[in-house]
Amino acid sequence: MSKFTVINHPLIQHKLRILRDKNTSTKDFRDLVNEIAMLMAYEVSRDMQLEDVEIDTPVAHATVKQLTGKKVAVVPILRAGLGMVDGVVKLIPAARIGHIGMYRDEKTLEPARSISVKLARQILTKTEVIVVDPMLATGGSAKDAIAALKNRGAKYIKLMVLVAAPEGVKAVQAADPDVDIYAAALDDHLNQNGYIVPGLGDAGDRLFGTK
Ligand code: PRP
Ligand code: URA
Prior knowledge:
GO terms for molecular function: GTP binding; magnesium ion binding; uracil phosphoribosyltransferase activity. By secondary structure, the protein is of the alpha/beta class. The protein has helices at 10-20, 26-44, 82-91, 121-124, 140-151, 166-175, 203-208; strands spanning 4-6, 50-56, 61-67, 72-76, 96-97, 100-101, 116-117, 128-136, 156-164, 180-186, 189-190, 196-197. It is 34% helix and 27% strand. Strands 1-10-9-8-4-5 form a six-stranded parallel beta sheet, sandwiched between helices. Strands 2-3 form a two-stranded antiparallel sheet. A two-stranded antiparallel ribbon has the order 6-7. The longest helix is centred in the N-terminal third of the chain and has 19 residues, at 26-44. The relative contact order is 0.18. Bound molecules: 1-O-pyrophosphono-5-O-phosphono-alpha-D-ribofuranose (PRP) and uracil (URA).
């Protein structure tokens, strides 16, 4: 079974509290999503591989560490996942950025099937892929996104979300035991409309000011 990690850092928890508040403005919501994504990326990248390299400091010759050449790709699930990309890229500037187009049908709660992955197969097979989406509710969108990436050759995938429901975590762990999941919070449950409770509402609408 894959790992599920809640990143309990006080800064993340404080920012998440503001994000959840229904009175938070679109601008603040957008800024906070990126800030939390950046802080989470610090933890999600903790197992990145390092190698020794020889350099000269102004004082001496030294053997120091640098990241190995392994590339990272950030793949947002559209549309709300877009809100997390800049934050991750601030921390990992060399990351490739892919996109997965998909949306959840509000009635059936199923992700709509026309999924497009905008990232070349030869990149996907070699990179560590961090899939980002603020919400993991039923898990349907994340599972379909991961399946699409695996179909295109992705081998090393992590899922990073802001708020997860127990139902979504269970669904992704069952479908993808090789994909570790990172969240800023594990909430209580899903309501009858598939919204996370207490959650933060519709992440896409709050990010883009569409309702
Ligand atoms: C939201 C959210 C996830 C999905 C989670 O997107 O950003 O992608 O729902 O729900 P699930 O776990 O039950 O699949 P939505 O489909 O509302 O599209 P949007 O990003 O365009 O708002
Ligand atoms: N998608 C959202 O944007 N919010 C939820 O609570 C569930 C799915």
